[in-house]
Queue: 3 jobs
Job 1
Amino acid sequence: MRTKNTFLNALANSGSYVINLILSFIARTVFISALSQEYLGVQGLFGNILSVLSLAELGIGTAMIFHMYKPIAEEDEQGIIEMMNLYRILYSIVAGVVTVAGLCLVPFLDIFVKGAPNVEGLTFIYILYLANTVVSYLWGYKRALIDGNQKGYISTLIVTLFMTIQFIAQIIVLVIFRDFIIYLSMQIICNVLTNITIAIKCDRMYPFLQRDKKSLPSKEKRQSIFKNVSAMFMHKLGDVMVNNTDSLIISSFVGLASVGIFDNYRMLLGSVNTAINGLLGSFVASVGNLSVTEDKTRVYSVYRTLNFIGFWIHSYASLAFLVLFNPFIKTWVDITGKNGDDYLFPMSVVLLIVANFYMGGMRKVTLNFRDAMGLYWYDRYKPIAEVIVNLVVSIVLVIKYGIVGVLIGTFVSTVGVCFWIEALVTYKHGFERNVSEYFKTFGLYTGSLIVIGGATYGICQFINMGGIPEVLLKFVVCTLVYNVAVMLVYGRTTEYKEFMERLVGLFEGKMGKELPMMRRLLGVK
């Protein structure tokens, strides 16, 4: 059942990603054609400001989901009811805090915008972004129960449905009205409908939730939860400050137009991250269940396989971004009738963007296991150092080096603080193993990326016909050369064999027959 749910979650997340990628790309294309570069900057800037305000969530979601794994696994209905009641109360408080904090920032919006942008109704636009954030806390918490039961594919399908409606409505609004405010309103409406629909579905799937709206976990349990919430808040602080202050610093020191250019790169990264997070995230509930039902040896074995999968996906995506970012963006913007060269960063900036993506990606599986095993208390002070290093380095370097300085700040805080501390905590307190195993594996993986990726990148540089043909041919060459090389290099490892065995097994189970040709092709017995 655990494997089946994981497969369904991964399938739903992958399908959702494809739909999201296609529609978001079409919507962004129409956006660039219909509105000025400053509106792209506003979209990126206000999105990041609201992400910072989401610190009020305190990491409640992650901590609550961890504490629900046990009652879910034991089918303890009363325990689930008490946790969901507490979840509802905490998120109602968060919604109020975010609303007040967001409104308090209104008089200071000019501080975050360098120059006078050609955008009407800037304050009202910000309030719409704030409203969209607040409504997520009012009903969205019920999704946690569905996901915690390893049935995230259900909520994913609902999200995908309304996301499709949202993008189509926004495209129509941009084509007919060219109005950014109506464009944002469509997003708020669909967000509300998504959360209400998931809440209704949750109530129908688990009708026992309706029998008791008042009971809460015991005092001891609440103390344990609040302890973990305080630890998760520290982690959320680091995550938000590192990943969402780049646009704020760029806007304040460089200009809103540069934020707009940066946001195009972030959108493409975000689309791929959505797919990867959906794939790897589909394992989180199963990992939580695994950690309370299996021994550490089995958990560690699963971790190594997932870590290999994470490396393969992120290394390939990093190389593809390095090869395709600028050719793709230039071709894409040229299609809208604007000069694509005006929307490009130099390769030094692109390399740093990709390096930050890779380092962030290589942390994901370790962080998923840390969270699923409830180990976030042990490295609760790490985010403080992370934030200090990131902000100090970014602000000092942005004055002289611009965007490059900001990206260096992110990279330094990741490598110098997060990367090794997270691995140390997970290995020491989760797997009870020496963390040197992790660093050896990371060094091997990254070294192979540099060698294989460097060779692949060099081959792709001979392709220079311009336009869509260049983008497509580089994509095909990059995909084939890199992935075939990875299969040849890692084909004999335990992690590769276990991954492929499970993958082929799932396909055979779905088709009801053996697939010998697929097994031979992938090197599976």
Job 2
Amino acid sequence: MLTVWGESLDKNNVLCEYPRPQLKRDSYLNLNGMWDYAITDGGTACGKYDGQILVPFSPESELSGVSYRLVPDQTLWYHRTVKLPAGFNKGRLLLNFGAVDQTAEIFINNTKCFTHIGGYTAFSIDITEFVTSDSFDLVVKVNDVTDTSHHSKGKQTLNPKGIWYTAQSGIWQTVWLESTPKDYIKEIKITPSLDEKLVKIKVISDSDLPCTAKTLGKEISFTSNIEQKIEINDFIPWTPDTPQLYDVDIALGEDRISSYFAMRKVEVKADPNGIKRIYLNNSPYFMHGLLDQGYWPDGLYTAPSDEALIYDINFAKEMGFNTLRKHIKIEPMRWYYHCDRLGMLVWQDLVNGGGDYKFMTISTPLVTGRHSRDGKYTDFSRGDFEGRKQFYAELDETINQLYNCPSIVLWTIFNEGWGQFDARKAYDRLTAIDSTRLIDHASGWHDQMIGEFKSLHVYFKKYRFKKDKLDRAVILTEFGGYGYKEDGHTWSDTNFCYKNFKDKAKLEKALCALYEKQIIPAAEQGLCADIYTQLSDVETELNGLITYDRKKIKVSSDTMRQLAKKLNG
């Protein structure tokens, strides 16, 4: 099942855009394209390669050219020879991976140089000492146990059905090489302070060195590893309607990077009537959004092109939405860049892990309204200490990787009790890392009675606004899920949704009734945000506003925009 972008894919020009716009260098060698691959049983070494795979598409995907499902006791091998262009090496060689699912071991010229665990976060390796000429052999060894262990898995499963989707493995985001001088910028941290009319910039390097930053006609000198404040007196606040970005160029010695920032503030506070609301840039703002799974029929986790990423964001805006909840997945950095520049608020979920989820634990709040304390590790399938430890490590990596994205305004720690544990500790840890954004500690249920939000999922009954007993802001973080099957544009004959309709007209009428009779009155009473399920169909789940292949829109954009206008007053 192909999207239009998959149909026109050029194998010699795959996702070639610079993959990390928040820290961009002129030095850039894209390593996407055809690689050798092999799949072996257990930890068996690779004797010969089975063929070629199109990186960065996982072997399970159609676009990879392989269409093979890796199982937990198999090993996936990648190989390619890298030839450096003349003059490319400036002193250090940095090898970057957007994401590799799940455990990756990296070999340069048959020498192991790095291991990364976790299928969703980016990693970078200094391979300078392993490269002794203008070419080298690169091998990536991958093992992926998917949902058979404690590792983060998102919505991947070896037995896909309903809201659980096809598992994918291996390299699924761009691989690239860059070169820097000996002293270089490892990371940057940008924090806007709208009320103080300044932006804080911190350049991270191995040692404290002189730096400069140029922005808005100013050039500021400072020292790396120490936060620098830059006054921004005349600026346009960032909103979905005015997504104003400001460029900044940073230098450390001979190393040069470009980035950007926006002046944006988000908080929860009482409105003049004493109702807790979400405020954007010191004004009440209703966040009207869609659940966005980030799956593609031809690339699975990997969008077939940059244009495909842009299409989904623009589609949501055309429908009148100002928010996307990125559900249980971390996207390539270019997706966040497009949200930043196009104007789309992002609620970012952390990726869930843990053992097999227990039906009684997960479903009890939905049926009875009772919420359990999440220190009961076994009940929540979090009995494995290493799994809990890994979750915290990935929490740190996720926040660090996405910190500079202006569009991200909320972090979701746990969803519907999936692998939930010690939410209060996770909430405190996340707040210590990032105090500039909102946090939903338990989306849906197993509320630990903390934080700024009462977060609700409502599918099988009418929603009526009720003030939170703890006086927190109330957000409807999932609802709807209305389905319609568009013949000729479905993954299979199986149809899963929360409420099914036989034709588009009935679907649209039901959506209007849902918003006009439930959501809009609730917003007037105090509801702060809504997230409808969902942007697109995904495999057998047919409750998207657009089909899985993005070829058929199910509801009128005019209708959806009119509903959005009523929500936003």
Job 3
Amino acid sequence: MNDQRRGTFQLLKDTVYLVAPPAPITLADWADENRVLSPEASAEPGPWRTDRTPYSRGPMEAISDKNVESVVLMWGAQLGKTDIQLNAIGFYTGHDPAPIMVVQPDLVVAKDFSNDRLTPMYRDSPQLSKLVVKDKSRDSRNTIYYKSFPGGRINIAGANSPASLASKPIRVVIGDEVDRFPKSAGKEGDPVSLATARTKTFYNKKLIWVSTPTLKGNSKIEELYEDSTQEKMHLPCPSCEELQTLEWAQIKFKYDEATRSCTEVHHACKYCGALHEEHEWKKDYANRLVWIADKKHATTRGFHLNSLAATINYTWKKAVEEFKAAKRAGREKLKTFFNTVLAMSWEEEGEKLDEDMLMNRREYYAADVPEGVKFLTAAVDTQDNRFEVEVMGWGTGHESWRIEYHVIYGDLKQPRVWADLDEYLQRTWSDIHDRKFRIACTCMDSGGHFTGEVYQFCKARLARRLFAIKGESPGDGTHVPLIAGVSTNNRFKATVIRLGVDEGKSKVWSALKQPLVDEDGNKLEGYCHFPLSTPQRNRGFERQYFEGLTAETLQTRYKEGIPYQVWVKVRPRNEPLDLAVYNRAAIEILRPNLDAELPPLPDPAQPRPPAPQRAKRRGTESSI
């Protein structure tokens, strides 16, 4: 065969490859034949085997079913959600080439996904490595966010970036952790709707939505799941063979509080009541499980699965230990357990905190710093005519003690009030054993009319961990973490920490609702203590304080039919709530070992060393 005929033959062969329909094969079978787990992305690198996670077969077969348009996975952690997505990407790269878009919560996560998960899969799976150019210098079209292959391409997008979701024809859309998506991509609207719109020109489009749920009534994955077949995995009871789901309510366990370990765990049958261990329920797992739908749907299959089904690196004993730890730590950790382990949305209880209930919890402190405190933080709210300062103590498990609420009045245009604030933040506080405590970290509000002065004040005291903070609250339900970032992009080059105040308020609210002990009398973590004032000392925690601490409620709002939750003022003064958020941020910035023991007390029989002499102050400070 001459060169011309050989070239013509190869061109014809390539053309047939691109236009010919793919051979009938399911996604699960394709993955078993072609997918290789990379060493940097898997604890067990090597060929993929669907039977290692047998519950993944049903969803993967649904993804490759030409009659199914959308697949929804409302799944817990440790179940291999990311691997199912990677298998789908590989299938639509190597077997049924198509333009693909993977949408991550933001561009930072998208970059990590591309570098840490997608690129290793393309590199280590032989079929795929031949199709995707590995060296960017050989093909400038292949970047972190974009890769091409014969018959298709893949775009890695961030749900917070309208440009990355811009109008381009896409046949396969994969949305990862959709409950972490912002409510709107800039001003363009719901990222799920925007990504879906990219597929309208394809009759054989495929939409894959994956996430753990979050708040009930505000969970996108729950909304998508409810508009689906609502399938749940069932297993037969080892005793009576009745099919049922694995449910947390049926888990029966023994727990050793001393060692904080689960010593025994069983799942009770809903029908005969028989108790069986995990290995008995999961014996011959792949052949015994079955997905059962709660309703019919023409185009969308939905799958709900909690982490009790996991087969790799997660056990029922581990789930019990995480549950007990979450109960000790409080509502915020318990909410995370419900979301990530049980794959259940969390329903907030009540609309409002009761100020009288909190005020009645006040207790007598025998010293400035009560027993249990290991670190002090402070928060400063900046007003035009005063500073409001709250000092808090922190102990094991984020148990907290309010120490003092102090107001420093003065003209903030004058140096005297700033000097008074500086002096207050340098005070030494003592416990009943005469241990000395200093404030380890301070967060100071930089909003209002004195931003520049706050920046100067904090920059000069950075060595004392005194940080200017800037609160961020999008107001549309978009998730911003409490510690959202750090910047020095200001004319003073001061360190400014950005705070997600909505998450901070949620953490404060959860802590305020935390009881001291559980129903069995075991002490819980995260309880908040408040001090009583005495005739000799007013600590500042009177009714006005508690009214300010409870001055906001969490309410559900709707924008273009999409629910979101927002904090709303019900009273005009909310400085105590703001300061509680700043103090929570301070301890998270500091990140001390709250489990560490305090230094031992000195032996009273031994003479104390002389105290060091402090230099006398000279004059009055004349600058901030």
